[in-house]
Specification:
Blueprint (H helix, E strand, L loop, with lengths): L2 E4 L5 H12 L3 E6 L2 H4 L3 H5 L3 E4 L5 H14 L4 E4 L8 H15 L5 E5 L24 H18 L4 E5 L17 H13 L10 E4 L2 E3 L8 H15 L4
Parallel strand pairs: 1-2, 1-4, 2-3, 4-5, 5-6, 6-7
Antiparallel strand pairs: 7-8
Length: 240
């Protein structure tokens, strides 16, 4: 059984993935933005999950999350599930996954939440100023996190890195009228994090409902990836 950290586990896709992985006998670490939000995970904690908390828009708190997780023991997998649709999209959707990837070096699998909207993001890395995390669109942030995943897959052959497009599902972010199936939204991330057969599919996949798709072609551009990694290392002071 695997140990799995899931960011943004207090509701939506993260909570559903946590419930299923716990039921499957896995050691699940749930995460919420603060202690008050973590109380929403009490049923998961009562079922055996362990909890960490911290605001993903704040680098110091992201480091604090990593410290809490490391005290519990390095996870085998990380599902970078948490995300925001507006506001500090660069901090939450890109910088936090980058930092947690760097600060949890023994995790052998990383699953990043992307979106079909990443295809509308800009590949011009020099236009992004991570000191102004709201100066980008949701599509931009999902383009960047998909490129980040592919960079990890290219440079770290000891890690399985994949991205998931969960679809437009009826969560708090997606809204009650979203047309896609909610269960299909979380199953792929859980499978990639813990499925014994998922490793056979390797690293660097962009997945939608357990089927590989082609992401925006420039997410696979090594020059774009390297430029992104340089900017993230400069912004955080942490490199791979």
């Amino acid at each position: 059984m695997a140990s799995i950290l899931i960011t943004g586990s207090s509701d939506g896709l993260g909570r559903l993935a946590a419930q299923a992985l716990l039921a499957g006998g896995h050691d699940v670490i749930v995460h919420a933005r603060n202690l008050a939000r973590l109380s929403a995970c009490q049923d998961l904690l009562d079922a055996g999950a362990r909890g960490v908390h911290g605001d993903l828009s704040d680098q110091d708190e992201v480091r604090g999350i990593a410290e809490q997780v490391n005290r519990l023991g390095q996870p085998d997998s990380v599902i970078h599930n948490a995300g925001v649709l507006d506001g500090p999209v660069l901090s939450v959707n890109v910088v936090a996954p980058y930092l947690l990837t760097a600060l949890l070096p023994d995790a052998g699998r990383h699953v990043y939440l992307s979106s079909s909207m990443h295809r509308g993001g800009s590949p011009k890395i020099d236009r992004y100023d991570f000191a102004h995390p709201d100066a980008a669109s949701y599509s931009d942030s999902k383009f960047l996190v998909t490129a980040l995943m592919l960079a990890l897959a290219r440079l770290r052959l000891d890690i399985l890195a994949n991205a998931v497009d969960p679809g437009w599902v009826p969560t708090k972010m997606g809204g009650t009228g979203a047309p896609d199936d909610l269960d299909d939204g979380w199953r792929t991330q859980a499978w990639l994090a813990a499925g014994p057969d998922a490793a056979a599919h390797g690293s660097g996949g962009y997945w939608h409902h357990r089927r590989r798709q082609d992401p925006h072609p420039q997410t696979a551009d090594a020059g774009v990836q390297d430029e992104l990694l340089v900017k993230l290392a400069e912004h955080t002071g942490v490199g791979w």
